[in-house]
Amino acid sequence: MRRKLVAGNWKMNGDLATNARLLDRLAGAWTRAERRSLAVCVPAPYLAQAQAALQDSAVAWGAQDVSEHRSGAYTGDVSAGMLVEFGCRYAIVGHSERRQGHGETDARVAAKARAALTAGLTPIACVGETLDERERGDTEAIVRRQLAALIAVLGGDTGRIVVAYEPVWAIGTGRTAEPADAQAVHTKLRAQLLAAGAGAVSILYGGSVKAANAAALLAMPDIDGALVGGASLDADEFLAIGRA
Ligand code: PEP
Questions:
Q1: The CATH number of the domain where 234 resides is what?
Q2: How far apart are CA 190 and CA 52, in angstroms?
Q3: Active-site residue numbers?
Q4: Which of 95, 100, 107, 225 fits a 20 to 30 Å CA distance from 58?
């Protein structure tokens, strides 16, 4: 079944005191009666803090990346097993800031998704085109290629992931895709997932989602939720998106 999910990506933001205020607000305000799931993906050093603050709440937590390896000589990396020890439910994989800033290839992103699933985490796998690619008319080809790489590695387990369509030009820019344009891409992704026997995968939209534009985006039939960057650092904004 397609789950409604609003997930926050804190990116490399936060400190112990600010996090404590934000996490307490979310834990206190979000109840199990809400119709969709709320989650925060925090920087790795704050996973223990998120776990302590959220473990008795209806809010889930996760990481922003995960290693494709189980253990070993991978300095700076964090394994899926380690994330599980801190109670994570989700791990973002293939965020454009990692594809671009850390040279992560489609194959590596798929290997990370596989490692997450093997450990019992739900990967939130990001796909999306750059502005150049969009202007060249390549949006569909790019997201199709990125999703195909995931399907090739995950096979019958594709149905266990969450996909996030995040046009790179909309991330952190204040420029959001028009709901109909986002829906058009989600329709293509849905068709590709259906063909892979994974039509019930939730597809989130991400890219400058705010309380003011969330309702219009989330009203689209194939947009099952949102991956929220900047606005997830503000409890009121994030809760309003969750309830949009
Ligand atoms: C993101 O980082 O995944 C994101 C969508 O960021 P923002 O909401 O700030 O555009």
A1: 3.20.20.70
A2: 36
A3: 95, 166
A4: 95
Q: Token pair for residue 197?
A: 């026997």
Question: What letter represents residue 202's amino acid?
Answer: S
Tell me the backbone φ, ψ of residue 88, rounded to 5 degrees: -65, 145
Calpha distance 24→229 (Å, rounded) = 19
Shortest CA distance to 6 belongs to which of 152, 184, 214, 157? 214
Question: Which atom of ligand 1 is least distant from the CA of 166?
Answer: 5
Q: What is the DSSP letter of 171?
A: T
SS3 for 72-131 is: CCCCCCCCHHHHHHCCCCEEEECCHHHHHHCCCCHHHHHHHHHHHHHHCCEEEEEECCCH
Look at residue 186 and tell me whether its pLDDT is greater than 80.
yes
How much distance in Å is there from the Cα of 73 to the middle of ligand 1?
31
Distance 130 CA to ligand 1 centre (A): 14
Q: Which protein residues touch ligand 1 with a CB less than 6 Å away?
A: 9, 11, 166, 171-172, 206-209, 227-231
For residue 64, give both structure tokens: 């922003």
Q: For 57-82, what is the mean pLDDT?
A: 98
Helix (H) or strand (E) holding 148: helix 139-154
What is the structure's pLDDT at 71?
98
Number of domain units in the chain: 1
Residue 1 has pLDDT above 80, yes or no: no
Outline where DSSP puts E strands in the chain. 5-9, 37-41, 59-63, 90-93, 122-127, 162-165, 203-206, 225-228
Question: What whole-number percentage of the chain has pLDDT above 70?
Answer: 100
Q: Which pLDDT value is given to residue 152?
A: 98
